Amino acid sequence: MSADAMAAPAGPFPDAAGHYGRFGGRFVPEALVAALDELDGAWRTAMADEAFRAEFAALLRDYAATPSLLYEARRFSAKLGARVLLKREDLNHTGAHKVRNVLGQALLTRRMGKRRVIAETGAGQHGVAAATAAALFDLDCVVYMGEVDTQRQALNVARMRMLGATVVPVTTGSRTLKDAMNEAMRDWVANVDDTHYLIGTAAGPHPFPSLVRDFVRGIGDEARQQCLDLTGALPDAVAACVGGGSNALGIFHAFVGDPDVRLYGFEAGGEGVTTGRHAASITGGSTGVLHGTRTYVLQDEDGQTVESHSISAGLDYPGVGPEHAWLHDTGRATYLPVTDDEAMAAFQLLCRTEGIIPAIESSHALAGALTIAPKLAAELGREPTIVVNLSGRGDKDVHTAGGYFGILDKEQ
Amino acid sequence: MSRIGIAFDKARAEGRALLVGCMPAGFPTVEGSIAAMTAMVEAGVDVIEVEIPYSDPVMDGPVIQKASDIALAGGVRTADALRIIEAIAATGAPVVTMTYWNPIERYGVDAFARDLDAAGGTGLITPDLIPEEADEWLAASDAYGLDRTFLVAPSSTDARVAMTVGHCRGFVYATALMGVTGARAQTSAAAPVLVSRVREVSDLPVGVGLGVGTGAQAGTVGGYADGVIVGSALVRCVLDSPDLDSGLGALRTLSAELAEGVRNLSR
To answer: Active-site positions, per UniProt (chain B) (predicted)?
Structure first.
């Protein structure tokens, strides 16, 4: 992405206080407001600063290896009856779209004169990305990770430690991602003077949802141009998986103003939305306040957060970024659940047809494309073009997938 | 007219600070929490702060987190919290409610204000609701004449202190330090500064919370604040005891020590 592309206004929403319609805003302890205001100011001036944008663009190009390819997946396409173009964010340094966000926030951290970053992580992908950026920028890094997740993802814990980060297992609540976020917020309240909370997705209190979107929107800016170059037209649909929602917002944003491009967000339907064991906050949740923002959340009748479930740790979160809640309410984007089984079938299909092992997160988007392809073809009366955000690579998921398909040798 | 203001006036007339003691509703059980709060009142706590347990309490340290988890695991519901508030209000002690915002939003802001009023509650302390996001609560608290306590922090700018205090009724909650709830070895140096910053813009009573756990600390904080708010140290009495009876004993002892502290001010 060029520095000029980043200067384009980010759109009419949110308002100055971070509201996307009835969603977003700030539901935080007063102690954090000054830091959020500082961050808001730093982000706005940074985005208006050509030198900042140029430095970010250079890092994305020279360090993160972007623009990522837009690859026409012909053998996979043949199975769908659609022309599928994969946005290869899995080829980025650290193996996912998340590197864009952490580099942007690390630059902001340095700009604010802070020396320490904290982060939350579920599967460890954002933790690894945050530790990577911290190493590059010589920042102290503490990653909060649910104790359950540190055991499930021991390899990523080791990665973060190799990169010099301190990993703190969180033993409160359900001991998973949401509790890691709680603990990161508590750390931030106590250490806000010298610490930036390097949040991992387009959620949380304002300005995080908009700020993260700005750092990842290059995915869509690139994909839109690449699609035009490759096919001579815009795609009929863009598909992405949605947990907190950063990769989806990143690819959606450039297309929001293109009315003929359908936007599809695929949530983690787990064992099925009707079973209650899922992480589909929009399709299976209700409006509430979680982690500093008003959005769709999984909650019980008393507003207590309900534990989410997904085979994909990266989507296993009981909330969603407020901009997605708003895109859902306005009807601009369509959100549908994809079950664990559907995602794993798509995972296997991509492995076998294209020789690409996708992240299980991204496999939800692939499965979604399988579902919508025939409907789009019928609607359009021709083969549709679908851009799918392949947001991450599946190396981290080999153990889970191996277990799912029963292909691990017994002693392993 | 503020409901809790009367209690602050009374303490002020006695030349002492008001003692506010916090306990999560339903911890260790619904009946156990009523017994605990009653014991606190009997031992000299002036105002009971009933915290509605929430699954994601980002302002709370490990002690109240654990107590909240126990209460939620025991199945406590918002309706139970209202029942507890009613029971404690019936003892004659003013009851203020502390809650994260989502349980209220889920209950219905106006419905909650109505039911809190009916239960005899004085108002709400809202740790994760700032005035800018509080339109519905401002309207509902006006409609039912409930107090509303927003937080100010050492990091709040002067403009924010003035704005926030301007939206408070009853009393202002000054968070003594940058951090979460939990007893600390030393009282905060930032707190007296914050209290005087509030006083510059308001005549409302100021309660100071976070980090107070002993009678001596209560005396120190009461020396410059109108109210001393104690949570984790009281909760720990019950949390660390092998059974409720011994917990109640420890709770009475600490409550009495704190009540003595707010009458023995280092001014």
So the answer is: 49 (proton acceptor), 60 (proton acceptor)
